[in-house]
Amino acid sequence: MSNTVFNNHQLIKNSNQYFLEKKYISISSEDRDIIKYPNSSEFEIFLPQEYLNVASARLHSWSFPANYNVFSVSYYNVTMIFKIDKLYNPTEHSFSDILTEGIFAALYNYGNKDILTEIEPGFYNPDQMAIELTNKFNYAVTKVINNFFANPSEWGGVDYNPAKILFESSGGYDRFKIVYNSVSQQLWFGNNADQFTLNNSSSKYIDRLVVNTECVRRNRLPEWVNWGLPYYLGFTRNNITAYTANQYLELEPLKVNVYIGQSGTDAVPRFFYGDAIPHSGDDGYWLLPTLPGAEVYYLQAPFKIGFMGQAYIYMEIEGWNCMDEYNVNLYTTTHSQNNGIVNSAFAKIAVPTTPISQWFDIGMGGPYKYWNPPAERISKIKLKIRYHNNTLVEFGQFEYSFMIELNLLKPQQERSYSIVNSFDLGQLQTYGSKYV
């Protein structure tokens, strides 16, 4: 970097007069070396030419695909952790059933340990998420029961082979039911026989984050936003236990959404606005007991769902970053100090739509990167597209394109000019030598 504007013609004296030229560079992610940079969110390319005397640069316009995964393994938000607290015991209700007794024995043997389940990465609408969670919760418990049936040494001398056969033919555990209240925009979790707890404060969330992040995340744990799947479903980092409708009536009689029968004791949760499962004809009765003497347990997410994903993406260009970014971490919250990253990014881009679509925009008054003195030459850029928490945006096989505006200073020879305004020039052209 020199202290003066670079001049190709060293024999011609630099008069310190310059012509400002705007130059535009169109860059498409598909033109990168895909073998070297398989992830389009991070790559380096050489520019079409060397750009000399660059005074400033900014992101001019862009086109990005909205095909991103809101839920992804790399975003650490596909895992849910729960446990079963109180089991339905058929003996307590004088109910003799081989299958039910086998399920009770398997879950009793497993104890009060955490059960993990993972949803499929991707983008969900609320009803799809409710169905996915219902199936994955039941599937996770099914695996626990199958593991018990697969180890006769744990049976304690009792023959559970008949229960094993019946369990396999019945399709597995099916007591969990999760639905979406489209009026309150909240998810409700229920079980028609067993009490359960969502372990949102489990250390396993932190352990998985630490292992998966490989020390690249900017936020230090504990995080209070985007920390895992429960956050997107409307939960805080506190454990939450399911109770019966009658228990909720005692705890919060004005806040529960239940139906109370004529006896006054057979309360069950209900959506009063219509079907809980669309077009099912259930009239809002989404969780009913199916076993003799069983009570249903349910809980409601405290907050609305948040399936939209990140609202902004950040573009970094090595050596061009000019925007400071505020960042909160454990140190700042415990020491009452502000913190952030100076020259963290080159541009901040709003995500205005959801998958599957394409969005286009043009930067109006966006941040500029200035060089003083001007950058002598620029021939390549190293790019990174990320979220605020430093995780890369997943574009998959969909490519994107953007255009950069450069302001170049062109040295000029010293000249004397006599400028005539347009009106006078028009008069000269009309009346000839009259005005000479």
**Helix/strand/pairing class, anyone?**
alpha+beta
Total count of helical runs of at least 4 residues: 8
Major pleated sheet: 7 strands, antiparallel
Low-confidence stretches: 209-221, 431-436
Order of helices and strands: EEEHEHHEEEHHEHEEEEEHEEEEEH
Task: Summarize the amount of helix as a percent range.
Answer: 10-25%
Taking all residues together, what is the mean pLDDT?
A: 84
How many β-strand stretches?
Answer: 18
Number of domains: 2
- Described by its quaternary structure, the protein is single chain
Tell me, what's the shape? elongated
Strand content: 25-35%
Distance between the termini: 49 Å
- How many whole angstroms does the radius of gyration measure? 32 Å
Key terms:
single chain, 436 residues, alpha+beta, Jelly Rolls, four-stranded antiparallel beta sheet, 8 helices, disordered C terminus
Q: What is the gist of this entry?
A:
The chain has helices at 98-110, 126-149, 161-170, 203-213, 229-233, 245-251, 330-335, 422-431; strands at residues 17-28, 42-66, 79-86, 115-118, 176-181, 186-191, 195-198, 240-241, 258-259, 268-269, 297-300, 312-317, 323-326, 340-345, 347-350, 357-362, 369-386, 401-412. It is α+β, with helices and mostly antiparallel strands and 436 residues long.
